[in-house]
Amino acid sequence: MLRGFYTAASGMIAQQRHQEALSNNIANANTPGYKADQATLRAFPEMLMQQMGGKSIPTQNNIKFPTRNPIGSLNTGVYVQEIVPNYMQGDIRDTGVTTDLALVNGTMPDETGSIFFTVQNEAGEVRYTRNGNFTVDGQGNLVTNQGYYVLDQAGNPIQTDGMEFAVSQDGNLQVGGQNIPLGIAYTDNANDFTKEGNGLFNGEAGAVPAGVTFTVQQGFLEGSNVDAMQSMTEMMEAYRMFETNQRVLKAYDESMDKAVNEIGRIG
């Protein structure tokens, strides 16, 4: 009886976490470069149930041997194993703003491979982003909307001196007669990255190797890859599953109430 409480409760907790991930996706449906979170559910280890008994052998000493009769397996519930971002390319839209840059995936030899802009957070640490919604700060540095420095290939902030600049499709920023390669990094397994908020990812990445192709489009932004309609449908399914587990939990509670108050009174 008590195990049923735990199984139903674990289902409710798992669906609640699934709902939270879906809600966050919908809230960021219009955030440039946002990668939708996907919750993966996994069952707890199953338990093999056996009936314990004994068998007496008609002998002078009446010997009794223990016996075990397999009943079957029992599932002990479900949990959210992890929440993994979906790194699929988002839609590319024209903004006409020269400081907006969009990374467009080309050839990726690894299915889980991805490319990112390299930026520097407030602690001076290197982070990665797909959000190319950049601007120029008061000191002439190319920065994200949160004020993080956009880095070049050498890992230094990009100084534009407030002048107009052009970006070629191979990722070279041209300003004041200088050619500055953008710090575009590649990882062969983006699933190892972790989200840190503000569109930043933390992980290990390096230079773009041979065989990996991409283009940089100036005046464009990569949109979120959230499918709002699908996310709403999944939210309804998760809500129904939550309600189902809630009804099971209520049924167990009513059965326990009868066992304690009615059957116990008769005894």
UniProtKB/TrEMBL annotation:
Its main location: other. Signal peptide: none annotated. The keyword Transit peptide does not apply. Keywords: Bacterial flagellum, Cell projection, Cilium, Flagellum. SUPFAM superfamilies: Flagellar hook protein flgE. Residues 5-35 form the Flagellar basal body rod protein N-terminal domain. It is found in: Bacterial flagellum basal body. It comes from the Bacteria. The keyword Metal-binding does not apply. InterPro entries: Flag_bb_rod_N, Flagellar_basal_body_rod_CS, Flagellar_FlgE/F/G, Flg_bb/hook_C_dom, FlgE/F/G-like, LlgE_F_G-like_D1. Residues 217-261 form the Flagellar basal-body/hook protein C-terminal domain. Residues 113-174 form the Flagellar hook protein FlgE/F/G-like D1 domain. PANTHER family: FLAGELLAR BASAL-BODY ROD PROTEIN FLGG, FLAGELLAR PROTEIN. Belongs to the flagella basal body rod proteins family. This is Flagellar hook-basal body protein. The lineage of its organism: Bacteria, Bacillati, Bacillota, Bacilli, Bacillales.
